[in-house]
Design brief:
single chain, about 220 residues, alpha+beta, OB fold (Dihydrolipoamide Acetyltransferase, E2P), 2 domains, 5 helices, about 30% helix, elongated
Length: about 220
Amino acid sequence: MQLSVLRTWGKQVTLDTPGIGRKLTTWALALLLLSACDVVKLDRDGKPIIPADPSAGPDYSDQTPQQIAQEFWGPKVMPAAHGQALDWPAVKQAQGKLNSTDTKSVYSKFSAKVAAVDADGMERKLTLNVNGDTVLVQLGPVIKGNAVRDAAGFIRFEDFKNQVQFAQVSRALNKQALSGLPAIDASWVGQPVDVLAAFTLSHGSIDDGVALEIKRGASQ
């Protein structure tokens, strides 16, 4: 039988040399195990630095809902709203496709005329006439619904630690929307406006309107 010949410490040995085969096998296994291991770096306290999972979603656990809303608003929400906004006929078409139990949140960009302004209380509203439809837009400070959050499409429940944080982010986005609106009072009644808003559609109604932008004096 032909055996491999090795030279160790100046001596010629073969794999059948007593003790050599077992030692070589042990070394080979050790080298194999080492080659299969990843080297984990340690921080200054000697604790392992675990690399981020590339498949994991964003982590908002150390941010307040207000910080999350501000982080989303300029770079993500407003571009999504402008890019995805439906005109009013398309909103009505989308509504018509819903069955009796479905809801859908959308952004819409349209021209309208101000029919009324309810500027009293905690749930102020703007009543608009849009192509013959009466549409309500909330002016706050209390805002109902999740239209702004849900219309965006990229804000997902699974990215947050629980239902409470997900709801808090929705309220923070609503407040962020209101913060950019002009002061609206009775002098707006009868005036044309251009509006960018979020709504929640159901089979029989268009609800939870929140304006992201509203400009007075635009022509229909």
